[in-house]
Amino acid sequence: MTTVFLVRHGQTLFNLQHKIQGFCDSPLTEVGIKQAEIARKHLDNLDIQFDEAYSSTSERACDTLEILTDIPYTRRKNLREWNFGSYEGEGEHLNPPLPYLDFFVQFGGESQVDVEKRISEEIGLIVADKTEKNILIVSHGAAIANFYRRWEHTSEVTRSGRIQNCSLFKYHFDGEKFILEEIIEHDFSDLN
């Protein structure tokens, strides 16, 4: 069985400034770097050896992955965050209430259906024809939330609240479906 470790990037400048960040990018903050270092220590303590690693093409995801592991990795555009169109870079106070559904389409962004399909198909392509592998994937909060939504019916593990930076979602892929085994959220209280 293949295991996928799906991780959200560390805190970014836009996260700190409460700005909408999708296809646009901002760098990791010092806190974001420390969050990734804490997540790395956790993975090292579990003694997980990754066979493959993948990242969104966004700098924040690549930088997080490079802290989490030393192995070579592949950048994949379809692991990127939800495209929020002209709302990107604006204040988060402008976001509509959840669920967003197709709200951002009118502003040049993606619908929720499109994001869920894109991220699910991409991770499906990554694991296709692989057995007994540990795969690390670094992506984004809304992208991960939509992957979770796509597969929540297969697992008894449930999430509550927002996906924190550097959260780790551990999925098993049995050849047909993804099963969420565990959500690991690290203690970052000393960083604030």
From TrEMBL:
GO terms for cellular component: cytoplasm. GO terms for molecular function: phosphatase activity. Pfam families: His_Phos_1 (PF00300). The active site is at H9, E81. It comes from the Bacteria. Substrate binds at R8, H9, G10, Q11, T12, L13, F14, N15, R60. InterPro entries: His_Pase_superF_clade-1, His_PPase_superfam, PG/BPGM_mutase_AS, PGM_Phosphatase. This is Phosphoglycerate mutase.
